[in-house]
Amino acid sequence: MKRAGGWYTFSFHVQHSPGVQPADVEEVVEKGVQILVIGRGMSEALKVPPSTVEYLKKKGIDVRVLQTEMAVKEYNALVTQGIRVGGVFHSTC
Predict the structure, then answer these.
(1) In what order do the strands lie in the sheet with 62-66?
(2) Where are the transmembrane segments (predicted)?
(3) pLDDT tens digit sequence for 3-21
(4) Number of domains into which the chain is organized
């Protein structure tokens, strides 16, 4: 993970299936976010299994799993409200 301006950025490679796994979001969790917004792609091809959502909820993190365009809008709205929010966005399919 690297810091770019006011943002922490990182990238990782995830297959559409099995999708985003708990280990994939650990770095975001360590940053102390209240909400994690996950964008599944423009046609929602990226899977987010229940085990990942459960892992985040056990850590006290609210999870929003959305189509990527909607996820970006949700992320921006939450940032505007001053909420500590993290985002994982699949930018293609």
Answers:
(1) 62-66, 35-39, 85-89
(2) none
(3) 444 555 545 556 567 788 9
(4) 1
